[in-house]
Amino acid sequence: MNLAFVLNFLRELAANNNKSWMDAHRADYHRARAEYTALVNTLLTQASAQLEPGLRGLAPGDVMFRINKNDRFQQSDEPYKRHMGAGLKPGGRHSPWAGYFIALEPGGETYIGAGRWMPESQQLARIRQEIHYNGPAFHAIRQHPELVRHFPQGLDTSQALKTAPKGYDKQDPDIEWLRLKSYFVWQSFSDAEVVRPDFVERVVASWQAAKPLVEFLNEAMRAEE
Hints:
Blueprint: H1 3-15, H2 19-24, H3 26-50, H4 60-63, E1 84-88, E2 99-104, E3 110-116, H5 121-133, H6 135-142, H7 145-150, H8 175-178, E4 183-189, H9 191-194, H10 199-222
Antiparallel strand pairs: 1-2, 2-3, 3-4
């Protein structure tokens, strides 16, 4: 797979983000998407064998996001995303479960992640309840040396309530974690790292380190109310 070609195409797209340019470079887009599809297929094969059996039977098209923007909340009027992304989750990219993510974007903006970003309210309540009831297990996962080594920033705290969620005391010893609205870890890669021969190996190793977090979140979300 030629990930340098993907990054170069996305770099040019970022500088010419309009339909007429895309129409004129449709062949390059299809080649870039084919190269990215090969990456996702490799990752999907390895992840289904090593991380999540629920991924078995899924094809790259089930987990890859479209490059066209279709989010009415987007602030930019650019018609295309500046990255190619995929969400490897049981049921596919739009399923409600925690899983594994990758997005290629030039300029050092490539990232991989794991967990659940902005779960819906019922799921979020179940995750918080599990942390409240089973704090030691949660903290052991959150602070595990392998997770910290691969995701040194830890859980993303950019999305958090300013006060305690309903039903919890603001003096709760776990309040810092109960206030989160997402339970997600991520790390970025430079362009040079993306094109290294061991990129796939590094991605899978990082996801492996996050597997206990993903399993903790999915078990919590499956719990009965």
